[in-house]
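tool_call: predict_structure(chain=1)
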Amino acid sequence: MKLLAFVAAGILAAGGGIVYLLLLGGATPTVSGSDFTLGLLVMVVLGGTGRPWGAIVGGVLYSYAQQSLTRLSGSSLIASLPGALRGPVQQPLFLLGVAFVLAVFFVPGGVATVPGRLGTLKSRRRSASRG
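tool_result:
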């Protein structure tokens, strides 16, 4: 089973790489850069490792947060902050890193585990109120 899982993961990774290569129209050095690789890892950890939809949820959240924080970093609200605060806040990757650390600390299984955790909390409250 482990070998089958390894082969299936390799085939899926190769297929994803081929599709990504076709979408880009060629290979560029940025594809193998650390920013790209770390971005993929953050997507998986944010969404939830070992969850069927975890990587997709993490990818959507990461992409949305990156675009939103990039827009926010150039806003007049950030420009009006004092210099000591403005420096780190103008860096979207710094804010994404802080959000990643907070997500790992508060939601260790990833965002995909939140609905299951809420269901567990509700069932615990029901059993505590009955008992």
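agent: The two ends are 43 Å apart (CA to CA). Proceeding to next step.
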